[in-house]
């Protein structure tokens, strides 16, 4: 649990560094601190975890794996932010601090063992994100994105809380084990308000992870927020949301799966179609990535609908693959946007001739997001679909494969623009930090794709 | 003894009435969020939703003789306060840029 303490103290240190004008030290201190937190998390691997803090938290392998992925993704995004926040304002320490505060919420979200901590974790994360989305104070799009995110986030918290309350009313406990024991011991006479509570929690969590029909805030918020904040929201935050979702449903509600699984199945299918078909029409690369993140939420739901022993691992592999590929895509977007000044897909025309490296890593990322073999995205989809097939959910898998084919169309549009369209353009300058992050992410994507045993049997 | 009388007073009303009242307040909040166009009023409706949850938690907690529900209420109050601080700051920021807090002006990004 030292991870949580280190990540909580680090932003306070950063705020002091900002106070004493040590701007140069911010990024190194952040990265060193995060690596220490990462080490502290890895040290507890296979430690035979017991609930701690009076049963509030359980830092088991599941939490460690998701904390590690969240921390690594955050480090990569923070490295991309070198020189990025300086352009927005002069108070840089606050950006790092708020991002780390939201990471605290994420670590709580993936290691809760009591619904109180689920709520507290989600709120710590969300309140920080409301600020981050609106951090460009004079930019209208950023303002609008912050307000929409804030109103929708607070609204969905209301549903989540009402659901938690009804479950407490029926079972008399906020503890995940207590709720599970209630469900098991009352299997024939569960209070109807318990079922209502489960449905309201589904609504609340679907809002948070951006699954249709509760997705409508996602494209606007993702488009209006600064690109790197969008990268953070669509990778780390989404993965953590699904980890929290899965933890609750596998720990407490698994024995009443017959009740909620059809609901989630409908949500999954709607999410896949809405995400993919709307993404086809987008001209803006950033907005396309927003819709693609909705469709990936649909794929991630598979593991929860087809709940089984392998679900945690499937979500882990998929979330890792998706996060890394998205970081490349957003990194490339930031670079191209600095040159062309627009988010449009046309901005990528002819990129391959001047910047072969950037075009190559972006191609790897698009292939991984589309789920082409030999990339991490394929392995993620493979685990998702095989988990669903094991439970004979054929219709879902057929729908998902159709959607995977639709998604190839819009991902390949970017690749075609880079390699087969020509445009007058000068070379995009790639700073060393970007080269490292993009190269590292592309390497990991291919490594997992070629040799999935690296991460496939961790949890 | 004081706490005993409060618990007795709360238990004088049947539990179902609390559930019904909270559900009604919660629905009013939801309708407020969906129908009103003023950001502050939407915000107040969200608070209404949270407070209906607080009421219900307290009622459940008293009926079960379990303090956990009331402790949860404190968490909700604290985090709602944090949310208010950030939310009002965002609304002020919007007002400075547009001179309006009507959410209909928020249409630069297409829904």
UniProtKB/TrEMBL annotation, chain A:
Reactions catalysed: a quinone + NADH + 5 H(+)(in) = a quinol + NAD(+) + 4 H(+)(out)
Enzyme Commission no: 7.1.1.-
Compartments where located: Cell membrane; Endomembrane system; Membrane
Matching InterPro entries: NADH-Q_OxRdtase_suN/2, ND/Mrp_TM
One GO biological process term: ATP synthesis coupled electron transport
Stretches that traverse the bilayer: 25-45, 57-80, 92-112, 118-135, 147-168, 193-217, 229-250, 256-281, 288-309, 315-336, 357-380, 392-412, 433-454
Assigned keywords, A-Z: Cell membrane, Membrane, NAD, Quinone, Translocase, Transmembrane, Transmembrane helix, Transport
Membrane topology: Multi-pass membrane protein
Function: NDH-1 shuttles electrons from NADH, via FMN and iron-sulfur (Fe-S) centers, to quinones in the respiratory chain. The immediate electron acceptor for the enzyme in this species is believed to be a menaquinone. Couples the redox reaction to proton translocation (for every two electrons transferred, four hydrogen ions are translocated across the cytoplasmic membrane), and thus conserves the redox energy in a proton gradient.
Family (UniProt): Belongs to the complex I subunit 2 family.
Name under which the protein is recorded: NADH-quinone oxidoreductase subunit N
TrEMBL record, chain B:
Alphabetical GO biological process terms: ATP synthesis coupled electron transport
Transmembrane segments: 15-35, 42-63, 69-95
Subunit organization: NDH-1 is composed of 14 different subunits. Subunits NuoA, H, J, K, L, M, N constitute the membrane sector of the complex.
Keywords noted in UniProt: Cell membrane, Membrane, NAD, Oxidoreductase, Quinone, Translocase, Transmembrane, Transmembrane helix, Transport
Major localization class: membrane
Segment forming the signal sequence: none
Function: NDH-1 shuttles electrons from NADH, via FMN and iron-sulfur (Fe-S) centers, to quinones in the respiratory chain. The immediate electron acceptor for the enzyme in this species is believed to be ubiquinone. Couples the redox reaction to proton translocation (for every two electrons transferred, four hydrogen ions are translocated across the cytoplasmic membrane), and thus conserves the redox energy in a proton gradient. NDH-1 shuttles electrons from NADH, via FMN and iron-sulfur (Fe-S) centers, to quinones in the respiratory chain. The immediate electron acceptor for the enzyme in this species is believed to be a menaquinone. Couples the redox reaction to proton translocation (for every two electrons transferred, four hydrogen ions are translocated across the cytoplasmic membrane), and thus conserves the redox energy in a proton gradient.
Membrane topology term: Multi-pass membrane protein
Compartment annotation: Cell membrane; Membrane
Source organism of the structure: Mucilaginibacter gilvus
Protein name: NADH-quinone oxidoreductase subunit K
Catalysed transformations (reactions): a quinone + NADH + 5 H(+)(in) = a quinol + NAD(+) + 4 H(+)(out)
């Amino acid at each position: 649990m030292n991870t949580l303490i280190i990540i909580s103290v680090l932003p306070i240190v950063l705020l002091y560094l900002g106070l004493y004008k040590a701007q140069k030290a911010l990024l190194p201190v952040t990265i060193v601190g995060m690596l220490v937190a990462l080490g502290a998390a890895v040290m507890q691997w296979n430690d035979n975890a017991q609930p701690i803090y009076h049963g509030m938290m359980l830092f088991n392998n599941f939490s460690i794996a998701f904390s590690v992925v969240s921390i690594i993704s955050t480090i990569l995004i923070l490295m991309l932010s070198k020189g990025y926040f300086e352009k927005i304002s002069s108070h840089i320490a606050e950006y790092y601090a708020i991002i780390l505060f939201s990471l605290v919420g994420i670590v709580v979200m993936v290691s809760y063992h009591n619904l109180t901590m689920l709520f507290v974790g989600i709120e710590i994360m969300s309140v920080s994100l409301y600020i981050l989305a609106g951090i460009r104070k004079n930019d209208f799009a950023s303002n609008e994105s912050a307000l929409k995110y804030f109103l929708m986030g607070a609204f969905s918290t209301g549903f989540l809380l009402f659901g938690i309350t009804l479950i407490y009313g029926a079972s008399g406990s906020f503890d995940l084990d207590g709720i599970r024991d209630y469900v098991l011991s009352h299997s024939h006479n569960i209070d109807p308000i318990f079922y209502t509570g489960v449905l309201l929690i589904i609504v609340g969590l679907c809002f948070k992870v951006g699954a249709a029909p509760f997705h409508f805030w996602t494209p606007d918020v993702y488009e209006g927020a600064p690109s790197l904040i969008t990268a953070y929201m669509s990778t780390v935050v989404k993965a953590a949301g699904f980890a929290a979702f899965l933890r609750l449903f596998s720990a407490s509600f698994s024995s009443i799966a017959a009740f909620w699984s059809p609901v989630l199945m409908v949500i999954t299918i709607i999410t896949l179609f809405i995400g993919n078909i709307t993404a086809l029409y987008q001209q803006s690369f950033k907005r396309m990535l927003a819709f693609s993140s909705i469709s990936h939420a649909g794929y991630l739901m598979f593991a929860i609908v087809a709940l089984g022993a392998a679900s945690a691992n499937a979500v882990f592999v998929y979330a890792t693959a998706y996060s890394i590929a998205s970081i490349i895509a957003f990194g490339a977007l930031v670079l191209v946007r600095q040159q062309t000044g627009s988010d449009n897909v046309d901005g990528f025309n002819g990129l391959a001739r001047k910047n072969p490296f950037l075009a190559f890593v972006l191609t790897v990322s698009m292939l991984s997001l589309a789920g082409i073999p030999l990339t991490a995205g394929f392995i993620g989809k493979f685990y998702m679909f095989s988990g669903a097939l094991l439970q004979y959910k054929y219709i879902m898998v057929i729908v998902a494969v159709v959607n995977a084919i639709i998604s190839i169309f819009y991902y390949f549009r970017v690749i075609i623009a880079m390699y087969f369209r020509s445009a007058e353009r000068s070379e995009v300058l790639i700073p060393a930090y970007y080269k490292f992050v993009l190269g590292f992410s592309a390497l990991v994507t291919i490594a997992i794709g070629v040799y999935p045993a690296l991460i496939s049997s961790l949890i | 003894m004081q706490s005993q009388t409060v618990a007795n007073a709360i238990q004088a009303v049947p539990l179902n009435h609390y559930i019904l009242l909270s559900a009604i307040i919660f629905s009013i909040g939801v309708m407020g969020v969906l129908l009103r166009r003023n950001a502050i009023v939407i915000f107040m409706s969200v608070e209404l939703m949270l407070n209906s949850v607080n009421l219900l938690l307290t009622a459940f907690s008293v009926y079960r003789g379990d303090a956990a529900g009331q402790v949860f209420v404190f968490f909700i109050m604290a985090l709602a306060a944090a949310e208010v601080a950030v939310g009002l700051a965002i609304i002020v920021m919007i007002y400075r840029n547009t001179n309006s807090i009507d959410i209909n002006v928020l249409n630069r990004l297409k829904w």
